[in-house]
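Pasting two entries for a bug report.
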Amino acid sequence: MTRDTLFMLPPGFEDHDRREYCPECAEVWGVLNYFPSLKETLHIIYVPITHPRAPIVDLLGAGDYNAPTLVLAEGTGTPAGVSFKTANGRKYIDSARGLAALWAARFGTPVRRGS
């Protein structure tokens, strides 16, 4: 099975001379813990807080990419009503809300409140 690749910041990292976490990544981890079967569809890679984030650049080309970013597996269909970006010929989503919309459309998870 070909998996989508999810790039996340680690649960804790050093920035601004203190330990921090990414609120969007924490939201995504919450969804993955609510619906653990989603993890089976993903290849999860942690990226550093600093740019450039080489593993993302390797797939999408040069750019200032957000985390979380989900890069769809090649040949993966795009459900109607889900917004995608494209770089280097690859489709990706770079927000927790976008990921929630994709997973709801693709796997039937509940829709994020406020969406």
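Entry 2 (this is the one that rendered wrong in the viewer):
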Amino acid sequence: MTTTSPLRVLYVEDNSMVREITLELLEDNQRLVAAFSTAEDALREFKQQPFDIVITDVSLPAMSGLDLARSILDIKPTMPIIVATGYALDLSPNTWGPKVRAILKPFTSQQIDALIAELCAAAEPQA
């Protein structure tokens, strides 16, 4: 019998209520979630340990979620990233590559699960 490792998720959201609610959605389905309220803290953690996917709010204090996504892509260009926003984006992160997607908040657990599955499947090496 083989055991699959839990998906390691780096999640960034500055609104504590939204962060707690979203954590409840994300912590299902064999996921280990490290949650942060600032992009700077999340970037430090990203440099310290491996993650399988990054989910970040766009509007964060100081460094934005888009700047965080760019910084992470500079370090690991193949990292699957989901940027979440309550606003329409002028420059869609969907054009940043096949493993970067945007999702509009509020999203359902089915929407985020489907997007995570899509990006993680795209991240798996082809046989």
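Dev reply: Rendering is fixed now. As a check, the viewer should reflect this: The first strand starts at residue 7 and ends at 12.
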